[in-house]
UniProtKB/TrEMBL annotation:
It is found in: Cell membrane. Residues 36-441 form the PTS EIIC type-2 domain. Signal peptide: none annotated. One of its GO terms (biological process) is phosphoenolpyruvate-dependent sugar phosphotransferase system. One of its GO terms (molecular function) is galactitol transmembrane transporter activity. It holds the Pfam family EIIC-GAT. The keyword Signal does not apply. It is a multi-pass membrane protein. This is PTS EIIC type-2 domain-containing protein. Its main location: membrane. GO terms for cellular component: plasma membrane. The lineage of its organism: Bacteria, Bacillati, Bacillota, Bacilli, Lactobacillales. The chain crosses the membrane at residues 12-32, 39-57, 94-112, 133-158, 178-198, 218-240, 246-266, 311-330, 336-355, 362-381, 414-440. The keyword Repeat does not apply.
Length: 454
């Protein structure tokens, strides 16, 4: 089993996910040629997306590092990023059991009609493995780690159903596709109460800033590429050193153009992936609707399908410098965000439809969530570092390692706290999650019946 998880990790999502796609499409009766073409487009889409996001972080890193230095950062733990924790998660003892565990949970929830999502986003189960492994190290109890990984998957599947209609409508996803990305669905949970609070704050409740309203009000200045240019230029001007004003201005303008390119390229990269997805989603929906005529079965996919939306990108770009500053000024924090800064588009994407694309609401809620998450990451730093030193790639003994994904995740804090209560704490969380899933599904089916009646 350890060999299998290591093999999956070595392949990477741009190989492993297309293989899963190919198998699913053939199983659904699609021609082999069509299955191969779709799988290739999905893999190419992942590569293209990774290239653009990696390019963004590479170009932003000098300004981000400079901004941290100017604020007098003396933080002792670095955020290694999701790619590094993926290696850690799949390479750990938890990684050896995570895939069969989560597949079994998915089947049970489908059979008992708690959820309607069939998860094919197997690669991102590394997030469950990492979280479970961190809690296991923290608590000194492997069972608590397994329960953490499993219950986190329960929520990911429940949230996939919860956000399916909003995501389909807002992002234009094919019918029958949901987002089962575990970390993105964590923050989806908080979007609803934040939206309720924002609706009751005078002034803020009437402030509707979306990519569309910006472009409508400011014309060409509101174009996503122009917004990216301005944000990148400002980040350079504030973050880069001024030893040579001429070179600083030139570098800042270049950074602005780089981020303008990201604003244009990200949606195009996700559209490549969508081209490969549509045939699978159509075939799956046709089969599933026939087999389960009374249920709205969906195929759970990666957040990569939705990160190209301008409201997602703008909110994430605005979040990056604020998180660097917060990391420095928050008393008691020890984690410097770095590796996961480029991943904010993935973390916040599922919140955006709840806020109807409102950049201000997405940004404010993200600042609160990730700012407080720094304290969870600091709390989990010893456990994360111990795990990374053992299973991470390229770990150095004299460096303290932490992460935002998943060390800063609210569920990581919840399950770590539950370990102090014992098995009863995990049972309570499990019962609560199942109850939420059951009630949400009951409400959804009742609404569908009312729609049919009307």
């Amino acid at each position: 089993m350890e060999f299998i998880t290591q093999f999956i990790n070595d392949l990477g999502n741009f190989i492993f996910i297309p293989i899963i796609f190919l198998i699913f499409m053939v199983a659904l009766g699609r021609p082999l040629a069509e299955a191969i073409q779709s799988a290739m487009k999905v893999g190419i889409g992942f590569i293209a997306l990774s290239m653009v996001i990696g390019f963004m972080l590479e170009k932003m890193e000098p300004a981000i590092t400079g901004l941290a230095g100017k604020t007098g950062s003396s933080l002792d733990a670095i955020d290694v990023g999701g790619a590094a924790t993926a290696v850690m998660g799949f390479g750990s003892n938890m990684g050896a059991i995570i895939i069969p565990l989560c597949v079994a949970i998915n089947l049970l929830l489908l059979v008992f009609k708690i959820t309607d999502c069939v998860n094919v986003d197997v690669f991102n189960l590394h997030q469950n493995a990492s979280m479970g492994a961190i809690v296991a190290v923290y608590s000194g109890n492997f069972l608590y780690g397994v329960l953490t990984a499993g219950l986190f998957h329960v929520w990911a599947l429940i949230a996939a159903d919860l956000g399916a209609k909003n995501n389909e409508k807002f992002f234009g996803l094919p019918q029958g596709v949901s987002i089962s990305h575990p970390v993105a669905n964590t923050y989806l949970l908080f979007a609803y109460p934040f939206n309720w609070i924002f609706d009751r704050i005078p002034g803020l409740r009437n402030l509707n800033v979306t990519a569309e309203t910006i472009q409508k009000r400011f014309g060409v200045l509101g174009d996503p590429t122009v917004v990216g240019f301005m944000l990148g230029t400002l980040l350079g001007l504030f973050g880069l050193d001024w030893n040579s004003p001429y070179h600083t201005i030139i570098s800042s303008v270049q950074l602005g153009m780089y981020l303008a390119a990201v604003m244009l390229l990200l949606p195009k990269m996700t559209s490549i992936m969508m081209e490969g997805l549509v045939p699978l989603s159509n075939a799956a929906r046709k089969k599933l609707v026939k087999r389960f005529p009374d249920r709205d079965i969906t195929v759970g996919m990666d957040t990569a399908l939705i990160v190209g939306n301008p409201s997602v990108i703008s909110s994430a770009l605005l979040l990056i410098p604020v998180m660097v500053i917060l990391a420095v000024v928050l008393p008691g924090n020890r984690v410097m965000p770095l590796g996961d800064l480029s991943q904010f588009v993935f973390f916040i994407a599922c919140m955006v439809p709840v806020f109807k694309g409102n950049i201000i609401r997405t940004w404010l809620s993200s600042v609160i969530l990730f700012g407080s998450g720094l304290y969870i990451a600091s709390w989990m730093t010893p456990a994360t570092n111990e795990l990374f030193q053992k299973f991470g790639a390229g770990a150095q003994e004299n460096v303290m390692y932490s992460s935002l994904n998943p060390s800063a995740n609210p569920f990581t804090g919840l399950f770590a706290a539950a370990s102090h209560i014992g098995i009863f704490g995990y049972i309570l969380i499990g019962l609560l999650l199942i109850s939420i899933g059951y009630l949400l599904k009951k409400k959804e089916r009742s609404q569908l019946q009312n729609d049919v009646t009307v």
